[in-house]
Write a structure and sequence with these properties.
With 344 residues, the chain is α/β, with parallel strands linked by helices. It has eleven helices and twelve strands. 36% of the residues lie in helices and 14% in strands.
Length: 344
């Protein structure tokens, strides 16, 4: 198991005043299975141990969402942090705008953003997390209920003035939407998907955030585990039916082959650092100007040890070029294959 022996360096989250470690603990898998977009069965005790272990190694922020496990992940985060003194607890980030059917857990949650719903969601998250203030509250997805951006972003800005929220962000929003929100009130953070296989936000959103002092925390940095170095065709075939990846096109056919091939290329770089392919995949995202931190999940404490080194790892320009060559040769995804300096 790979462990970090030095303090994890931090980066500013925009102009919020929060300094984040380069990696944060993601809790999508903590929600478990039994609902649309679940990850299959997950023991709460293992999740709590993993969170505590990550914090003990220096990680100072946790990313969760109301919809993960239909409220369950937020409760587990609260349980994991309850024995940690308040002045030593990590920042807690959560998200809103995904509303589930209380009578049918298998139904796909709806993207709802009307003001009444957002206010209700915030109070529910505060109650589940057992905190008085959420450090970063994010709109999970652009809504599909017809609520204009001006209305839901305006509502979130109002909620910030109540003191229940310290900072506000937009997850999975385009540059056009980020710009529109910025005209109403500053966007403290953006949360896009970003990995060597999914590089779209590296073209416009991340550079825009850098120039506008908006923090960026990226997710799916190991492409939902595909770049961890632990996957194979056989393992994918054995994924349980209630693990969303078993139905995802990214884990099938040509996409799966490309992902496994790229993981093998990352493994050759990982050897030079005595690291895992997953740690290299995460470090790749952190090498991009404008990226504040990378969200990484774990089912167990041992999985945290597999990627914690990414928090201190700095891969070289030669490594970045090698990865870019692999991405181009394998014809994976779209977007820039290597980071470039951003002009101020």
């Amino acid at each position: 198991m790979v462990r970090v022996n030095t303090p994890l360096p931090t980066r500013p989250l925009g102009n919020t005043g929060m300094q984040l470690t380069g990696i944060g603990f993601g809790t999508w898998v903590t929600g478990g299975g039994g609902y649309a977009f679940g990850w299959g069965a997950q023991k709460d005790e293992d999740s709590i141990e993993a969170i505590k272990h990550a914090v003990s190694l220096g990680i100072n922020w946790i990313d969760t969402a109301a919809v993960y496990g239909l409220g369950h992940a937020e409760k587990i985060v609260s349980r994991a942090l309850q024995d940690i003194p308040r002045n030593e607890r990590p920042y807690v980030f959560t998200k809103c705008g995904m509303v589930w059917n209380e009578k049918d857990s298998s139904a796909i949650p709806q993207k709802i953003a009307n003001p009444h719903s957002l206010r209700r969601e915030l109070d529910a998250s505060l109650q589940r997390l057992k905190v008085e203030q959420i450090d970063l509250y994010q709109m999970h997805w652009p809504p599909s209920d017809g609520t204009p951006l001006e209305d839901y972003w305006g509502t979130l800005l109002e909620l910030k003035t109540t003191g229940k929220v310290r900072a506000l962000g937009l997850s999975n929003h385009s540059i056009t939407q980020l710009q529109a929100a910025e005209h109403l009130g500053h966007v403290d953070a953006s949360q896009p998907p970003f990995s060597a296989m999914r590089r779209g936000s590296g073209k416009e959103e991340i550079p825009w955030c850098y120039k506008n002092k908006t923090g960026v925390i990226v997710y799916s940095t190991m492409q939902s585990g595909l770049l961890s170095g632990t996957f194979s065709k056989e393992r994918v075939a054995q994924l349980p039916a209630d693990d969303w990846r078993s139905q995802s096109p990214r884990f099938r056919d040509e996409e799966l082959r490309k992902g496994l091939d790229l993981a093998n290329r990352l493994a050759s770089i990982a050897v030079r650092y005595q690291a895992t392919p997953g740690a290299i995949a995460i470090a790749w995202t952190l090498a991009w100007p404008g990226v504040t931190g990378a969200i990484v999940g774990a089912r167990s404490a041992s999985q945290v040890d597999d990627w914690i080194q990414a928090g201190t790892l700095r891969i070289t320009t030669a490594d970045l070029n090698e990865i870019a060559t692999a991405v181009d040769q394998l014809n994976i995804g779209s977007g820039p294959s290597r980071p470039s300096p951003i002009a101020d």
